[in-house]
Design brief:
The complex is a heterodimer of chains A (252) and B (233).
Chain A (H helix, E strand, L loop, with lengths): L2 E10 L2 E11 L4 E5 L6 H9 L6 E6 L2 E2 L5 H6 L2 E3 L12 H8 L8 H6 L1 H21 L15 H14 L4 E5 L7 H16 L3 E5 L3 H5 L4 E6 L2 E6 L1 H6 L1 H8 L4
Parallel strand pairs in A: 3-8, 3-9, 6-7, 7-8
Antiparallel strand pairs in A: 1-2, 1-4, 4-5, 9-10
Helix pairs in contact in A: 3-6
Chain B lengths: L3 E10 L2 E11 L4 E6 L5 H9 L4 E8 L2 E2 L5 H6 L2 E4 L11 H6 L7 H11 L1 H5 L10 H13 L5 E5 L7 H16 L3 E5 L3 H6 L3 E6 L2 E7 H6 L1 H8 L3
Parallel strand pairs in B: 3-8, 3-9, 6-7, 7-8
Antiparallel strand pairs in B: 1-2, 1-4, 4-5, 9-10
The chains are: A alpha/beta (252), B alpha/beta (233).
């Protein structure tokens, strides 16, 4: 699912947080976004997914302009995101949080419940199975019945990831999915991202863990002060003197 | 002499135990990395040490004195600094105000001046509200707040999460310097390999207990630790 970002600009007060930003992400790619704290990466995510409205510019998804669509409409068209600071439903259990993230089901339509109960229960069984699988994968099985608000910081990040994986979206934007996550689990999540990608799911990933990121992305975009300062294959981008200066702390 | 001893520590929130019998020690000038699975109880351990966990049993000794029943503010005054994982500064207060509101500081003006000299970026933004700081600056401010009382030990809960690589390297350098000056550092980190590289010892938590413990170099070379907890890179 191709994503095109064209001339996005957004200012807070006098400060341009995103400054004439353009790039195109081919369908089914895994693309990384890096840059210093405050470069505008998360703001760009919010604009792309509709949580913030840009002052100027356009976002196109699957060839259609989605600039005016709400986050929910964009999610329905197959684009979802995670947040750097997780936004779980803190009073629902971990399992309920995952169930709530699944796309709307037949059981929610009253007529189906009366006239096609077998179909509804079959869907529910399938859904429960997917939730169980995700709980096991994200090592959240033991806390499945715990209210999400009680999870540790790292577990909340994992639940956030689980919720976007439940949606069946075709383009998933991950905001620092590895921060605060155990290194072994980072390896397993990376593997899962590659597997989903093989099934056609595209990923746009903001991440500071360059080691883990460069093992899975084909392209890296580097942002600094709202602008794109470099793009390309990870090995080349990380050698770029401009990138080293802005992000990696000078020449190495 | 051992600075901090933790013996048979249990506890949690409500009626659920998160810590299931933790034993650890920390010496002056030593960096102890605490790594482990998500939900293993690392942050809960930090809260127990600084006095913010509602229900605790077992013993926590600071310089031989039992901390049982001693509230968080008195622990801070008696030498325990703490940088929590989130909400570690007051966003609506300025940099200076954030430092000024720390309780139990001897010779406050002098200490603020010392810390601002140590963090030039913060000195430049001394009158900015903490909420407007960048991620790196905010982390420096949280760290400075913990150092206001000239603590004997500091407990750092994932100080490098969400920092860019150059800031991560800077943070670890700063922690190494702090320990070299004699402060004991309990460093909770998911960047476990980088953290162990500047540490003397490491403890790996799983299920509310210490599952593996040893010299930092030994843990870094341990295949089982890599497979289960530390990753391979």
């Amino acid at each position: 699912m191709r994503l095109e970002i064209e001339s996005l600009t957004m200012a807070y007060g006098g400060l341009k947080v995103v400054d004439n930003l353009s790039f195109t992400m081919p369908a089914g790619d895994i693309v990384g976004v890096i840059g210093p704290n405050g470069a505008g990466k998360s703001t760009m995510f919010s604009i792309v997914t509709g949580f913030l409205v840009a002052d100027a510019g356009d976002v196109r998804f699957r060839g259609e302009t989605v600039t005016a669509l709400s986050p929910v409409a964009r999610a329905k068209s197959g684009m979802v995101r995670t947040f750097q600071v997780p936004r779980e439903f803190s009073h629902l259990t971990v399992r309920e949080n995952l169930l709530a993230a699944a796309p709307s089901q037949s059981g929610e339509r009253l007529l189906d419940l009366f006239f096609r109960p077998s179909r509804v229960s079959a869907e529910e069984a399938l859904l429960a199975k997917r939730v169980d699988g995700l709980l096991e994968f994200l090592k959240l099985g033991k806390v499945a019945g715990t209210p999400a608000g009680r999870l540790s910081g790292g577990q909340k990040k994992l639940l956030e990831l689980g919720r976007v994986l439940m949606t069946g979206a075709k383009l998933i934007l991950l905001d620092e999915p590895f921060a605060g996550v155990n290194p072994v689990l980072i390896e397993e999540i990376s593997q899962r991202i590659l597997e989903l990608n093989a099934d056609g799911v595209g990923f746009l990933i903001i991440e500071h863990d360059l080691g883990a990121l460069t093992r899975i992305v084909s392209t890296l975009h580097v942002m600094d002060r709202g602008c794109l300062i470099a793009s390309g294959r990870p090995a080349e981008v990380l050698k770029d003197p401009v990138v080293r200066e802005a992000y990696l702390g000078g020449p190495s | 002499m051992t600075l901090l001893s933790i013996v048979g520590l249990r506890g949690g929130y409500g009626d659920i135990d998160i810590l299931n019998g933790v034993d650890l020690t920390l010496n002056p000038g030593e960096i102890l990395t605490v790594a482990g699975t998500n939900g293993a109880g690392k942050s809960t351990l930090a809260k127990a040490i600084v006095g913010l966990l509602p229900r605790v049993s077992g013993r926590i000794l600071l310089g031989g004195a039992d901390l049982a029943g001693i509230p968080a503010e008195r622990r801070a005054r008696s030498g325990i600094g703490y940088v929590p994982q989130v909400a570690n500064v007051f966003p609506s207060l300025t940099v200076i105000e954030n430092l000024d509101v720390v309780e139990g500081v001897h010779d406050r003006r002098k200490r603020i001046a010392e810390l601002l000299a140590l963090f030039p970026a913060l000195a430049q933004r001394r009158n900015a509200r903490a909420g407007s700081l960048s991620g790196g600056e905010r982390q420096q401010l949280a760290y400075s707040r913990a150092l206001m009382t000239r603590p004997k030990i500091v407990v750092l809960d994932e100080p490098t999460a969400a920092l860019s690589p150059s800031l991560v390297a800077e943070s670890f350098d700063r922690i190494a310097t702090l320990a070299a000056d004699g402060t004991g550092v309990l460093l909770i980190e998911q960047r476990a390999r980088q953290a162990l590289a500047i540490s003397h010892r490491g403890a790996i938590m799983d299920g509310g207990k210490v599952a593996m413990e040893g010299g930092a170099a030994t843990l870094l070379a341990d295949e089982r630790a890599a497979n289960l907890y530390l990753g391979h890179h």
